[in-house]
């Protein structure tokens, strides 16, 4: 029996979907433990690009069972469209995809609340993707939410109506102008709910407990990144769930002493979507080159990602709070061609050099202190052995390993699952 975790260590978009896809053959069960449909996990193989929003990234492997855990918030409309997009691949969704009854449901009015709340903030908006995720988690913690298991109850429609009516009152309170037709949105929602009923709903914590007793291997898949964690991220510019290792325990009902490996994924540089502090953001041609070569646009939102140099202060922080045991470095190929690379190894925090992530990393408080490295000018995308990598890249990897005191076991040199080097 093995339970391993796979987490993003930056502000999301690190490439978790690809690594889950690469590792899936080693596991019987892939379980998503938090987040909503704003996070797109991108997989690429056989010349086809796949973007998954809610379904775990093991869905393309024949023998893997995929579980959407209780910590996830589900939009039935998005999930049904996602399933329809997989039909051409002849995947047996009914037997391969299981959904926790305790997972909360995103209602159409949650999306409207999201839009009203963000509009009311004006210039202080946090960059919400407007998918209704934040308001759904608010209802969850406020003990008002509707869960997947409620769909099976006779009074589901009444429960829905009560909550949706409450949401409309809240929307009026915000006093902002948003145009919508809730009746049309509800028609689509209830049609999707009927489709959802065709899937298997499970008591996921019991299912996983029995799987452990049977010696099954389980990979827990997170969404977003550690720096977006609602407790330990760059608050308030964060997501609404716990994206760190602790979130796997609460989002799946897994005991912490059962967890073995914690895989941490990071890019060879740093990106961020939306608002919020970003100490190593690069506003020069270097940042533009990273965005262009790395195709840094959100797989779900299409939003351009802000780009900058690797922030080792933030990375060490993420490694520490997650208890990371192995690292995977993504997009090393994107840095090919730079004469000089920079890595942030400390912050100038109010005039003092520090090596930990402080309470506030806004630009007025924090300036990055860089160490420079000689770059490499080689096409890495066709390489398949660590020994074949340029010496400069190996030195870059060695430096990161020494700084964070965790080994880098995988180096990704392209989007395809085959473009993966094991060290």
Layout of secondary structure:
Elements: E1 2-8, H1 16-23, E2 29-32, E3 41-45, E4 48-52, E5 65-68, E6 73-74, H2 76-86, H3 93-96, E7 97-100, E8 104-105, H4 108-121, H5 133-141, H6 156-174, H7 182-196, E9 200-202, H8 204-213, E10 217-221, H9 245-252, E11 259-267, E12 270-272, H10 285-293, E13 306-308, E14 310-311, H11 312-322, E15 326-330, E16 340-349, E17 352-354, E18 366-374, H12 391-404, E19 408-412, E20 420-422
Parallel strand pairs: 1-10, 1-11, 2-5, 2-10, 5-7, 6-8, 7-9, 11-15, 14-16, 15-19
Antiparallel strand pairs: 3-4, 12-13, 16-17, 16-18, 19-20
Q: What is the percent of helical residues?
A: 25-40%
* Mean pLDDT across all amino acids: 92
What is the 3D shape? Answer: globular
Low-confidence stretches: none
Number of strands: 20
Gyration radius, rounded: 21 Å
For the record, give the distance between the C-alpha atoms at the N and C termini, rounded to a whole number: 25 Å
The total of helices stands at: 12
β-strand amount: 15-25%
Largest sheet: 10 strands, mixed
Lateral arrangement of strands in the main beta sheet: 9-7-5-2-10-1-11-15-19-20
Question: Would you tell me the structural class of the helices and strands?
Answer: alpha/beta
């Amino acid at each position: 029996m093995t339970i391993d975790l796979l987490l993003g260590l930056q502000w999301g978009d690190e490439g978790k979907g690809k690594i889950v896809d690469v590792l899936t053959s080693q596991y019987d069960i892939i379980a998503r433990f938090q987040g909503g449909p704003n996070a797109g996990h991108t997989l690429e193989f056989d010349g086809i690009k796949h973007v998954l929003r809610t379904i775990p990234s093991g869905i393309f492997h024949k023998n893997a069972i995929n579980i959407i855990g209780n910590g996830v918030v589900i939009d039935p409309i998005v999930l049904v469209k996602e399933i329809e997009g997989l039909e051409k691949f002849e995947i047996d969704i009914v037997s391969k995809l299981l959904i926790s009854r305790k997972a909360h449901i995103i209602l159409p009015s949650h999306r409207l609340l999201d839009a009203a709340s963000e509009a009311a903030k004006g210039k202080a908006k946090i960059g919400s993707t407007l998918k209704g995720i934040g308001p759904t988690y608010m209802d969850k913690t406020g003990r008002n939410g509707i869960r997947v298991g409620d769909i099976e109850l006779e009074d589901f429609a009444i429960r829905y109506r009560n909550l949706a009516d409450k949401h409309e009152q809240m929307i009026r309170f915000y006093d902002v102008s948003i145009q919508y037709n809730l009746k049309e949105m509800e028609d689509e929602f209830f049609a999707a709910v009927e489709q959802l009923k065709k899937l298997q709903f499970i008591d996921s914590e019991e299912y996983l407990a029995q799987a452990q007793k049977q010696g099954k291997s389980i990979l827990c898949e997170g969404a977003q990144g550690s720096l977006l964690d609602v407790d330990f991220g760059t608050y308030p510019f964060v997501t609404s769930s716990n994206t760190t290792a602790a979130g796997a325990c609460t989002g799946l009902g897994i005991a912490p002493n059962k967890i073995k490996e914690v895989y941490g994924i990071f890019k060879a540089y740093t990106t961020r979507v939306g608002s919020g502090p970003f100490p190593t953001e690069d506003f020069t041609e270097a940042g533009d080159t990273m965005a262009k070569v790395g195709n840094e646009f959100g797989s779900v939102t299409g939003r351009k990602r802000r780009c900058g140099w690797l922030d080792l202060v933030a990375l060490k922080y993420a490694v520490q709070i997650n208890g990371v045991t192995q690292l995977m470095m993504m997009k090393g190929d994107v840095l090919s061609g730079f004469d000089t690379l920079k890595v942030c190894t400390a912050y100038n925090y109010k005039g003092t050099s520090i090596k930990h992530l402080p309470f506030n990393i806004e630009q007025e408080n924090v300036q990055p202190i860089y160490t420079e490295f000689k770059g490499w000018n080689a096409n890495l995308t066709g390489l398949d052995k660590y020994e074949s990598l340029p010496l400069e890249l190996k030195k870059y990897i060695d430096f990161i390993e020494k700084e964070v005191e965790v080994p880098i076991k995988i180096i990704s040199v392209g989007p395809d699952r085959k473009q993966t080097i094991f060290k």
